[in-house]
Design brief:
- The protein has two domains: about 1-30; about 30-69.
- Helix content is about 60%, strand content about 15%.
- The protein has helices spanning about 5-25, 50-69, and strands at about 35-40, 45-50.
- A hairpin with a 2-residue loop joins strand 1 (about 35-40) and strand 2.
- The longest helix has 23 residues, at about 5-25.
- The radius of gyration is 17 Å and the shape is elongated.
């Protein structure tokens, strides 16, 4: 297979797996952690998930580091 075909098939499989596991992913407290900022006022809502972004970044970095070894 050409590299682009492999990439597209891999992305499709990844999307399918995430879709199947979504009920379990939605139960995780990501987005509601201490350090995630939510400002909710009438007519305005601001959401900045700082802690969640840091945790996701560390997990993705570790996974990429493991797969490159």
């Amino acid at each position: 297979m050409e590299p682009m075909n492999r990439l597209l098939v891999g992305l499709g499989l990844l999307i399918a797996v995430v879709g199947l596991l979504w009920p379990w992913f939605s139960k995780l407290p990501l987005g509601r952690l201490p350090g995630d900022i939510v400002v909710d006022r009438p007519g305005f809502r601001f959401f900045a998930p700082f802690t969640t972004m840091i945790i996701v970044s560390v997990v993705v970095s570790l996974l990429l580091w493991l797969f490159r070894r």
